[in-house]
Amino acid sequence: MVTLPKVNELGFFEIRLESIGGLGANLAGKMLAEAGVTGSGLNGVSFSSYGSEKKGSPVKAHIRFCDIDTKIRDTSPVERPHVVGVFHEALYKTINVVSGIYEDSVVLINSAKSPEALKSKLNLLAGTIAVVDATGIALEEKNRANMAMLGGLFRLCPFLDVDNMRTVIRKSLESKYPGAVQPALNTFDRGYNEVQFQTFAVPEGESMPKFVRWDTPVLGYETQPMGGLVINPGNSILKDLSISRSGMLPHFNQDTCIHCASCDNVCPDFCFVWEEQPDKKGRPQMFLQGIDYQYCKGCLKCVTACPTDALSKSREADGYADEHRTPHRFPLAAI
């Protein structure tokens, strides 16, 4: 009989997956729960919570395990996870992905950085930080990052049966996507083998912060500004879409650009920056200056539309977007 390494007061071992739509966290949660139930003989449940179903929007998947004699009567979101899987590193910019963790919780992050480098970014006091370059593995294996993240999660949850997970992957894919089975298995195995982790103890004289629910509204009937003032308008100027990118980014080569605006015609957001300049004959013409990566969600439609290869797709490197961003110059009235 499988014994869970730790449980909360209700007898549950809880996992929370933090992701964006399109990375497969919902499917990963279902497969993880199925493997725990069929392969380890546990009771388990998996469900997701999200707002808009649009690709790039924040998504959470919740998994609970308990022994076979414990009834699962709690389907509320996981607030105090023993394990957190962060499918998109940039989520920490807008979401407290480590909310509710214990001092011995494990946080698995899709990143090429070291655990030490991520500790300060996550504002993590203590716990185990595990990293796996799930995006890089998926690109190399021509598969999806969720399989590499599943591999990492299985490495960190030794009570789960790895061979059973491989069976679940085959069963989930072979009927509709038989050609994807072996790449998925390769991606899973690499995620399992390539995950690295480091444990950080609570510094002497300090203690873990008191748990505060992450879903508590900032504004309510007692804290709303007088007069119904909208302090965060739905204006693209104020938004940062960088958390929507799933690993790829367009690169701009101005030397080969013919300023045809094909990229701008297909761009669903406000990415391309233009400036009126005289052409060779002195006539006014709009010239493309660059990309404002604040609004780029990495859909790469511009790369497909570009007739001269002035735009190319590349794996997003840390800091590239900030270094190569061409910011829009909005008039004050627009803000």
Radius of gyration equals 23 Å
By CATH reckoning, the class of the largest domain would read Alpha Beta
Name the CATH superfamily classification of the largest domain: Pyruvate-ferredoxin oxidoreductase, PFOR, domain III
Give the DSSP E fraction (strand runs of 2 or more residues): 15-25%
Distance between the termini: 61 Å
Q: Order of strands side by side in the largest beta sheet?
A: 2-3-1-4-5-6-7
User: From the coordinates shown, what is the CATH architecture of the largest domain?
Assistant: 3-Layer(aba) Sandwich
| Secondary-structure element order, N to C | EHEEEEHEHHHHEEHEEHEH
Q: Spans with pLDDT under 50 lasting ≥5 residues?
A: none
**Biggest sheet overview:** 7 strands, mixed
Whole-number total of structural domains: 2
Return the structural class. alpha/beta
How would you portray this structure in words?
The protein folds into two domains: 13-200, Pyruvate-ferredoxin oxidoreductase, PFOR, domain III (Pyruvate-ferredoxin Oxidoreductase, domain 3), CATH 3.40.920; 236-334, Alpha-Beta Plaits. It is built from nine helices and eleven strands. It has helices at 25-40, 115-121, 134-141, 145-156, 162-173, 181-194, 262-266, 301-305, 320-324, and strands at residues 13-20, 43-50, 58-66, 83-86, 106-110, 127-132, 196-200, 248-252, 272-278, 284-291, 311-315. Strands 2-3-1-4-5-6-7 form a seven-stranded mixed sheet, with helices on both faces.
Features:
335 residues, alpha/beta, Pyruvate-ferredoxin Oxidoreductase, domain 3, Alpha-Beta Plaits, 2 domains, seven-stranded mixed sheet, two-stranded antiparallel sheet, 9 helices, 11 strands, 21% strand, globular
